[in-house]
Amino acid sequence: MTTGQTLAPDRIARYRQAERAMWDRYGLEPTERFIDLDAPVARLRVLEVGTGTPVLFVHGTAGPGSLPPLVGELNGLRRLVLDRPGWGLSTAIDFSGHEYQAVVADVLSGVLDALEISRAHVVGASIGNVWALRLAARRPSRVDRMVLLGGGPLVPDVRIPPFIRLLTTPVGALMVRLPEKPRVTRMQLRQLGHGASVDAGRIPTEFFDWRTAMTRETGSLRNERAMVRTIAGPRGFRAGLTFEDEELARIDQPTLFVYGTSDPVGTVDVWRRVVDLLPHGELRLADGFGHAPWLDDAGWIGGEVGRFLADGG
Fold first, then answer.
1. 296, part of any domain
2. Across residues 97-114, what is the average pLDDT?
3. Helix 205-217 with 182-191: angle, nearest 10 deg
C-alpha cells in the first residue's frame, strides 16, 4: 500500500503496529484510505469506522492516536479520523505559503469531496477547533453540527500554551527530533490538566506507546512545529488565525463546546463569551477534566457528543 509520508517500510510498519494496538484496545478495526488533494497538494490519510451519518474528526497536538477512546463511544455513525497534514502517514504542506484561514478550509472541503460527502458533522480538538470553525465559516453548506473539544486559539485573548510556545524556540527544534518517552508524555499531560487521570492510570499504556512510535517513526511533531511557527509569534497568535467577534456571530451551525475546568488553554469566562457569540452555541463544563477531555472520561464525553449529534439527525 502506498503511504502519505516518504518513510522507510520498517518505520511505517512499527508506527502502524503501535497505532493498531491503540485501536485494538477499544475493539475497533478502522479501514484506511489515502486522499490526493490538488489545492493544496497533499496526500492525506483517513481512518474510517462504522456507517451512518458522517463525522469528520480533526485532531490537535495530542494527535490522531488519542482519538480511539472517543471514537469507540460514538456507535451508529460513520467516523472519519483525519491525519492532519504532516501527521501520521499524511504528507506535510508548507503553511507559510498559504493564508491559514483559507487553506485549512480548503483541506477539509477537499477531504469531504474525495470521500464524496456533501455535508458532515465535524468534531475538532484544540487547533482542530480552528479548522472546524474555518470550514463552517467559509463552506457553511459542508458542515451540519460541530463539536469543539478543549480550549484552542479561537480568539485573541487566548494565550499560547507553554508547550506550543516551546515548539517555536530552538529548544523545540531539538525536542521534536527526539523520541518522546512516556515520562515526557506524562509530564505534558499533567501540564494540560490530566494529572488525576495519569495518576489513576486512566490513560492507557497503548497511548504512550503510540506517542513514542509517532515521534520516533514519523515526522509528525517536526511538521507540527513548522506549522506552529507560521501561526504563533513572540507576542501571541498571528493575525488571521483567531476569530473576531463578528466572524463568530456569523457561524450559524449548532455548536457544542466541551471544556474541562482543568484545561489551561483559555478560561471558563473566555469560553462562555465565545459560546454566547455563536448563534447556536452550547457550553458543557467537564469538572476537573483537562485539555483533551475524552482522555479523562471517554464515556461521559462520548455521551455528551453523541446526544448533541443525534439532535441533528
1. yes
2. 96
3. 110
